[in-house]
Amino acid sequence: MRNHTKIYIQYFGDGWLPCEVCGRTAVDVHHIEARGMGGGRGKDEIDNLMGLCRECHIEYGDKKQWKQFLKEIHERKVQYTAERRAKGR
């Protein structure tokens, strides 16, 4: 298993994880800031990793016009998860 996939699963939990865009099963962990486009090795951080189904990864991944859309969706998921953890759930 690749390092960025491990980081994502450790943060959000093991088992079934939904696509952050459409809710289907996430099968890819996408780098919002692509490693090959300046994301670098330091971008294997939860703020830069999002789970996507294959269809959404093809449709939205690595396309400039969708980057802000993906960031906003992912920021909400990270914030929601952090709030639930703070409440002990």
Please give a structural write-up.
The chain is mainly α and 89 residues long. The chain has one domain (3-83). The protein contains three helices and two strands; from the N terminus they run H-E-E-H-H. The protein has a two-stranded antiparallel sheet with strand order 1-2. The longest helix is centred in the C-terminal third of the chain and has 23 residues, at 64-86. The termini are far apart. 20% of the residues are buried.
Please tag this protein with its features.
single chain, 89 residues, mainly alpha, two-stranded antiparallel ribbon, 3 helices, 2 strands, globular
Summarize the entry for a quick read.
The chain is mostly helical and 89 residues long.
Fold blueprint:
Blueprint lengths: L2 H10 L15 E4 L17 E4 L1 H7 L3 H23 L3
Write down the Rg. 13 Å
Widest sheet: strand order? 1-2
pLDDT averaged over residues: 90
Shape: globular
Q: How large is the share of residues in beta strands?
A: 5-15%
Q: Mind describing the biggest β-sheet?
A: 2 strands, antiparallel
Roughly what percent helix? 40-55%
Uncertain ranges = none
N-to-C CA distance: 27 Å
Tally of extended strands? 2
How is the quaternary structure best described? single chain
State the order of secondary-structure elements, H for helix, E for strand. HEEHH
Q: Kindly give the count of domains.
A: 1
Structural class: mainly alpha
